[in-house]
Amino acid sequence: MKITENSQKNVLIIGSGSMGYSDQRIHDMWIDKYNLFLKVEHESSIKKGKYKPLITLEGIDWCGTRTIYNYIVNGVHKSLPLEVFNDLGLYLWNHLFNVNTGRTPVHLFLRQSDPGLGICIPQDTRENFFSFREESDPLEKIYLEGLDK
User: Fold this and answer.
1) What are the pLDDT digits (tens) for 89-145?
2) β-strand 76-78 against 106-113: which pairing, if any?
3) CA 80: distance to chain centroid?
4) Quick one: which of 25, 24, 6, 3 has its CA closest to 108?
């Protein structure tokens, strides 16, 4: 496989248990709201004279319950920083945690370099029927242990 500039940048990969409202992945709605929050923060910073860059998580590939997002800063694709990954993990935990089940519907929450395989990831194998899922709630680790390393 030829390595390209994009394939070396960390992207966000999320999978959530089932489709939610209006045939949308459960996490998609919250990513849209997170993007809106970041846009308002950016615009407010301009008005206050304390500029913060415009950050957006842009869906680049999706299928079934998975979505892959690029991290965009002022229109330029960059590697997803650990701080943003953890902040988003806590944000999703706070909005998706179900007290009845003790978990969130998110079964995949990864920050890794884009392998350039579309929606497939290197963790997909025959043994897991090409549908890798993290064994426990990946957002719970971020919530309980603080920052993911």
Assistant:
1) 999 999 989 899 888 889 899 999 877 777 788 898 889 888 888 888 889 888 887
2) unpaired
3) 9
4) 25
Tell me which residue of 118, 108, 16, 110 sits closest to 65, measured CA to CA. 16
Kind and range of the H or E run holding 49 = none
8 A C-beta contact, residue 15 and residue 110: no
| Cβ-contact 107, 41 below 8 angstroms | no
Nearest of 149, 6, 20, 148 to residue 69 by alpha carbon: 6
**Tokens, residue 75:** 């229109």
Separation of alpha carbons 85 and 92, rounded Å: 11
CA–CA separation, 124 and 63 (whole Å): 14
E strands present in 17-147: 55-63, 66-73, 76-78, 106-113
Predicted TM-score (pTM) of this structure: 0.84
Number of Cβ within a 10 Å radius of residue 6:
13
